[in-house]
Amino acid sequence: QVQLVESGGGSVQTGGSLRLSCAASGSIFSTDIMGWYRQAPGKQRELVAFITSVTNYADAVKGRFTISRDNANAKNTVYLEMNSLKLEDTAVYYCYVRRRYDGSTYWGQGTQVTVSS
């Protein structure tokens, strides 16, 4: 069983920065995909970024967000550094893990990010 615990959300003004963290416990392998989705009010959940041996970003966050991962010492933590935040970045951010070997997906509980002017 995999459990994901997120932290780091909050409120910030436009142009500000936040760093989200997601600590995964359970059987996570370096080949598993880890990443972030977000869901704004009234909108569908959308992919923000994911990381394996490479990183991939949604067009809306390229150049502003950076995803990274720490697999050292049995830790499996994924981070999302968010800079130059915009009003439209306001959403609940969910981290996820997708296992390579069977495609099963696990989700965190979500953390609120609110950007105001």
What attributes does this structure have?
single chain; mainly beta; 4-stranded antiparallel sheet
Helix- and strand-based class? Answer: mainly beta
- Count of separate DSSP helical elements: 0
Terminal Cα separation, in Å? 41 Å
Radius of gyration: 14 Å
Q: Which percent range fits the helix content?
A: under 10%
Q: Which H/E pattern describes the elements?
A: EEEEEEEEEEE
Number of strands: 11
Query: What's the rounded overall pLDDT mean?
Result: 95
The geometry reads as: globular
Strand content: over 45%
Q: What about the largest sheet?
A: 7 strands, mixed
Q: In a nutshell, what does this entry contain?
A:
This protein is mostly beta strands. 0% of the residues lie in helices and 54% in strands.
Model description:
This protein is mainly beta and 117 residues long. It has no helices and 11 strands. The chain has strands spanning 3-7, 10-13, 18-25, 33-39, 46-51, 55-57, 65-70, 76-82, 91-98, 105-107, 111-116. The strands form 2 sheets. Strands 2, 4, 5, 6, 9, 10 and 11 form a 7-stranded mixed β-sheet that branches. A 4-stranded antiparallel β-sheet has the order 1-3-8-7, with no helix packed on it.
